[in-house]
Structure to design on (240 residues):
């Protein structure tokens, strides 16, 4: 991202949803004062432009994996999911929640469908937050444990249910979150903002769209790559 200092806050938020947590961290108003450039906004608030710009660049240009997912070990997959997907979800849920609150408080009567969208997203949050906690505290440590034994060509001694049980729960919760976001996409006509929508409204829908895309990638890595690999290891069919 060259010359980001000269780009307006609203354009940064609209084109690079990953930057929104950084903008909010520094209280840079990309809605009502979104016409200001990053340089102007930082000068107004007397904050370090270089620091903010670098944080935005880092958020947008996240490091991509150098190894294909299908060639990663179970441990590498877990680390990638935690760093890229769990971190993203934890950062983005409060941002979307905050934007929905603002839209409803200011324009709820004009866009009554946003109340239902807020209700659905609250349900997404209620599903994903404990879901990630269970993965981080139960399933992922078990996968790492089994992977470590497998890497040393040792049988884990654990029954397949040690891995398959929690995986079954995770897959069900993936389906729930996916269905809720599908309903949001349907209600918003594929995340299309009304022509007269404010910047916050537009950014909110773009961020919801990106959130759903990230979830699809997240679930694909787990359901289709990590989980089958973990089941193969605990069943003694594969050395990782």
């Amino acid at each position: 991202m060259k010359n980001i200092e000269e780009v307006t806050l609203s354009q940064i938020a609209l084109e690079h949803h990953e930057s929104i947590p950084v903008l909010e961290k520094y209280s840079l108003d990309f809605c009502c004062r979104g016409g200001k450039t990053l340089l102007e906004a930082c000068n107004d608030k007397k904050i370090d432009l270089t620091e903010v710009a670098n944080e935005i660049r880092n958020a947008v240009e996240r490091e991509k994996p150098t190894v294909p997912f299908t060639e990663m070990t179970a441990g590498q997959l877990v680390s990638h999911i935690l760093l890229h997907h769990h971190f993203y979800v934890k950062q983005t849920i409060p941002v979307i929640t905050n934007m929905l609150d603002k839209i409803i408080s200011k324009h709820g009567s004009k866009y009554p469908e946003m109340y239902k969208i807020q209700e659905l997203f609250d349900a997404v949050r209620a599903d994903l937050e404990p879901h990630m906690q269970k993965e981080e505290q139960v399933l992922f440590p078990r996968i790492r444990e089994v992977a470590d034994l497998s890497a040393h060509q040792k049988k884990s001694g654990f029954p397949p249910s040690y891995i398959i049980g929690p995986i079954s729960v995770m897959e069900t919760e993936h389906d729930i979150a996916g269905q809720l976001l599908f309903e949001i996409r349907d209600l918003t006509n594929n995340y299309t903002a009304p022509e007269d929508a404010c910047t916050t409204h537009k950014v909110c829908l773009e961020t919801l769209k990106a959130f759903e895309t990230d979830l699809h990638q997240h679930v694909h890595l787990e359901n289709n790559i990590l989980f089958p690999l973990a089941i193969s290891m605990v069943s003694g069919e594969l050395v990782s």
